[in-house]
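Before surveying the methods themselves, we first show a specimen of the format, giving the amino acid sequence and backbone structure tokens:

:::
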Amino acid sequence: MSGSLPSLTTDLTAVPLPRRPLDPAAFGDDPVRRWYENELGWPTVPASTAESPLRLRLGLRFDVLDVPAEAGRAALRHLAGPSPVAMRNDRMGFLVAAGSTEELPGLLDWLEWGTLALDLRAIGTGGVVQAPRPPAPAVSGLGEVPSGRPSGPGEDESLALPGRPEPGALQGAAVWLRPPEPGCEVEASLPTLSALGGDGGAPDLVRVVNTVATHCHRLRLRRTRQ
């Protein structure tokens, strides 16, 4: 690793958006949207039809680092912390600080990953992702949803993530592996470039990206050999 750290070009400490008033009529009969917008203060894109999923707007409260689930699962073994992580089918999404999408290309170059074709991307302003179903019992009446938590006592949650939908789970639905905590501002838990060399508060985006990129590269080599 050489050179100087890419400059921070975006404001990663934006003031959180205000929560909407608690008005049931504003959300109709959608308890999931009500949970995201009222409990977390996260902007959503309402479902256009009864069959389409609720989506979360990116670039306002957070961006998403999108990687293959196999690489993400391996990376989580080395990345402790409270930052939320979601999974949908064979992709895993790490929530990172808003503005990280613009920083990622320069950061990968600085970490000497820039010349490799890694299956890794960041999604930010203007993007959306499917909203994972809230963890039970945050919203009642949704049924059981795989949470990624281990069944055995004393196991690390990040070491026992679901590899495929459990019986009864909705195929293609996003699920939380590390769900956000209502009442806590998400920004304080997200990996950010400004945390490099800090006092141990917010996670370090450099370490997260380097760890995820390493496992994406190992997955690429393994698939090439196969």
Q: What stands out?
A: Helices lie at 24-27, 31-40, 69-76, 100-110, 205-225.
